[in-house]
Amino acid sequence: MQERAYERRGEQYLLIKSPPASGKSRALMFIALDKLHNQGLKQAIIVVPEKSIGASFGDEPLTKYGFWADWVVQPKWNLCNAPGNDNGGKVNSLGAFLDSDDKVLVCTHATFRFAVDKFGVEKFDDRLIAVDEFHHVSADPDSRLGQHLGAFIARDRAHIVAMTGSYFRGDAVPVLAPHDEAKFDTVTYTYYEQLNGYDYLKQLDIGYFFYSGSYVDDIAQVIDTEEKTIVHIPNVNSRESTKRGKTTEVSEIMGVLGSWEGKDPATGFDLVKRVDGRILRIADLVDDGPDRHAKVLASLKDPAQKNNRDHVDIIIALGMAKEGFDWIWCEHALTVGYRSSLTEIVQIIGRATRDAPGKTRARFTNLIAEPDAAEAAVTEAVNDTLKAIAASLLMEQVLAPRFNFTPKNPQSGPVEGFDYGEGGYDPNKGNVGFNEETGQFHIEIKGLAEPKSKEASRICSEDLNEVIAAFVQDKTTIERGLFDEEMIPEELTQVRMGKIIKDKYPELDEGDQEAVRQHAIAALNLTQQAKQIVLGDGEGGAGGGRDAEPAGNTALIDGVRKFAMDVRELDIDLIDRINPFGEAYAILAKTMSEESLKQVQAAISAKKTRITPEEAKVIAKRAVEFKRERGRLPSITATDPWEKHLAEGAAAFVRYKDEGRYV
Question: What's the CATH code, domain 213-369?
Answer without folding.
Answer: 3.40.50.300
